[in-house]
Every structure is written in structure tokens, then in C-alpha cells.
């Protein structure tokens, strides 16, 4: 398959690129300065660009089978700083996918976004609001934009992220009554995202990912 990965130079996005290339897929990867990173591999096309720029996004998704959106929270957005990055990028991407006739979108928000907020404990909710309140307010809007689109979407909500090796032992919790916050490796999140794209699974679902 051919994937576009937006937000590809670090964190989950980079793990997605590595996982997809390891499985033999072609990857078109977009990030602001990705060509300056030590990221390479057969089948990779790396493009410097802005996830909120319509031309950059149209270029990276050209000819792909699925788009994986993995924007992380920059350090300067933390501690209550408001942002529109996630909603702006998502509006741009949805419009570009509709213009290009691409239907499959898999994205990452986080546990505590959307209706998963109801499953946070009071200390977890207060901590998330204090540290990432601005980002998660925009992630809520991002999720609603995706839900309101005509795309075949999956929204993955991982818990607390670590950089341990891929375990292949994580849980995909689809039903709301099973959701819980917990730890998960970025490599396992990437494994889920690539597998969901390959299998066209979890369409119109918001699974929580936990170890």
C-alpha cells in the first residue's frame, strides 16, 4: 500500500513511518523539517511542509491509499497554552482528501479527548487540564470535525506514552465501558495504526489503546 503520514518526524509519526516501511509499504511523509532528520528507507518520500498548508498537504497525499495523521503536542503548547493546530490541520486535510477522492483516514488524538474524558479519574482530569488543557480542547474539536466528515475514519486514543520496544501485547478497547487510561508504547500505537490501514478495520470507531 501507499500511505501518507503527516507529523512524521518524531514520536508516533516516526514510528509509523518505520513500521510501514518495515512491512514493505510506500510512505510519503510530511513534517516541517523532515529532510533534515536521519530518517530514510526504501519506499520513503520525505517532504518538508506544514500540516495546515493546503498545497503541502495536497502534495503529500497525492496517490495514496490511506492517510495517517499523527500530530503531536509541541513543548511550547503545553501548560494551558491555547492552540488551533489540530483543528486547522484536520480541516485542511479533510478538504484535501475530499478533493483527491481519498476516503481512509486514521488519526491519533489521546485518551481524554472527546467522550473518553468521562473515563478519566478526577486527578487524571485535573492533571491533563493543567498541562495539556489547550491542546486537548482543540483535539476535541479535531475529533468532531473528523466525525462530521464523509471519510472512512478511525480515531485512536492511546494513553500515557513510552518509548519501549514494540510488545505486540497491547489492548484495543472499542466499547466505552472498557475504556481506561494506562501506559502504551509508541511503537505499539504505530503497529495499530498501520494494521488498521492495512485491514481497513475499526472504521467509525474511537478505540482506546492500552498495554
Automatic annotation (TrEMBL):
<dbReference type="Pfam" id="PF13460">
    <property type="entry name" value="NAD_binding_10"/>
</dbReference>
<feature type="domain" description="NAD(P)-binding">
    <location>
        <begin position="7"/>
        <end position="199"/>
    </location>
</feature>
<dbReference type="InterPro" id="IPR016040">
    <property type="entry name" value="NAD(P)-bd_dom"/>
</dbReference>
<dbReference type="InterPro" id="IPR036291">
    <property type="entry name" value="NAD(P)-bd_dom_sf"/>
</dbReference>
<protein>
    <submittedName>
        <fullName>NAD(P)H-binding protein</fullName>
    </submittedName>
</protein>
Amino acid at each position: 500500500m501507499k500511505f501518507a503520514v503527516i507529523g512524521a518526524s518524531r514520536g508516533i509519526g516516526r514510528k509509523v513511518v518505520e513500521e510501514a516501511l518495515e512491512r514493505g509499504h510506500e510512505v510519503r511523509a510530511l513534517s516541517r523539517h523532515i529532510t533534515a532528520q536521519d530518517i530514510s528507507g526504501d519506499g520513503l518520500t520525505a517532504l518538508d511542509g506544514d500540516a495546515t498548508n493546503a498545497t503541502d498537504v495536497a502534495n503529500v497525499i497525492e496517490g495514496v491509499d490511506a492517510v495517517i495523521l499523527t500530530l503531536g503536542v509541541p513543548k511550547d503548547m503545553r501548560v494551558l497554552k491555547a492552540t488551533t493546530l489540530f483543528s486547522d490541520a484536520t480541516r485542511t486535510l479533510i478538504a484535501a482528501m475530499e478533493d483527491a477522492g481519498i476516503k481512509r483516514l486514521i488519526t491519533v488524538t489521546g485518551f481524554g479527548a472527546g467522550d473518553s474524558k468521562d473515563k478519566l479519574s478526577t486527578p487524571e482530569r485535573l492533571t491533563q487540564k493543567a498541562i495539556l488543557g489547550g491542546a486537548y480542547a482543540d483535539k476535541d474539536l479535531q475529533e468532531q470535525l473528523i466525525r462530521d466528515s464523509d471519510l472512512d475514519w478511525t480515531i485512536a486514543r492511546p494513553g500515557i506514552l513510552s518509548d519501549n520496544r514494540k510488545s505486540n501485547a497491547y489492548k484495543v478497547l472499542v466499547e466505552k465501558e472498557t475504556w481506561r487510561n494506562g501506559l502504551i508504547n509508541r511503537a505499539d500505537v504505530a503497529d495499530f495504526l498501520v494494521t488498521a490501514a492495512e485491514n481497513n478495520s475499526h472504521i467509525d470507531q474511537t478505540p482506546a489503546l492500552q498495554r
